[in-house]
Amino acid sequence: MARPPTATYQLLKFSRRHLLGPEHPDTLFTMNNLAVSYAGQGQYAPAEALLSQTLELKRRVLGPEHPSTLNTQCWLARVYSSEGKHARAEPLFRETLEARRRVSGPEDEGTLDTATHLAQSYQAQGKFAASEPIAREVVEIDRKKHSDAWQRFLAESLLGASLAGQKKFAEAEPRLLAGFRGMDVRKDRIAAPDRYHLDQAREWIVQLYRGWGKPEKAAAWREKW
User: Fold this and answer.
1) Mean pLDDT of 66-84
2) d(CA 90, CA 59)
3) CA distances from 54 to 42, 100, 133, 159, 222 (A)
4) Can you tell me the distance from the alpha carbon of 52 to that of 57, in angstroms, rounded to the nearest whole number?
């Protein structure tokens, strides 16, 4: 029977710490992967603890703007978000985004991914005006570079939700509908841990129509899907 990924990473972490030392890049790489494996199983407490430790070591050993350091930093922020600790996630996402823009450029995949997570963090805290320009930037870049990717439609949905949160309902509606439908027809490409984005996008449409005073449309969307 094959070992589950978490068990494999646990064994690698132990062996690499013993053979290479606790600050060797390979040891840090394995620590990060073990933490991500924990997060993927919903074990956020051990993931958070291990990512925090790994981030501290990477900042010292590799430097604060090394791509590997920024990857761990973004994952720690993602775990905070999964735990509902949005106030802790936001500054980490913001710091990571600023660094990735400098190091890799605004159109890099990691930059766009971080920008999307930051927009989601703002959205979760009701900071709709802060979320809007970031989501808009991702939408514009994705339209040029990733026109058929499901992430492009996630950004579209985020932009719509940001507009709806500011009561810009007429502008938000086509964004939200396009975002949901774009993800829905590409749902087979969405990995299982990310499928929640589709449910969230539908819920944003329901909230749009409720806030806009169109309860019949809100009910239709809740029942239809």
Assistant:
1) 96
2) 19
3) 19, 19, 32, 33, 42
4) 9
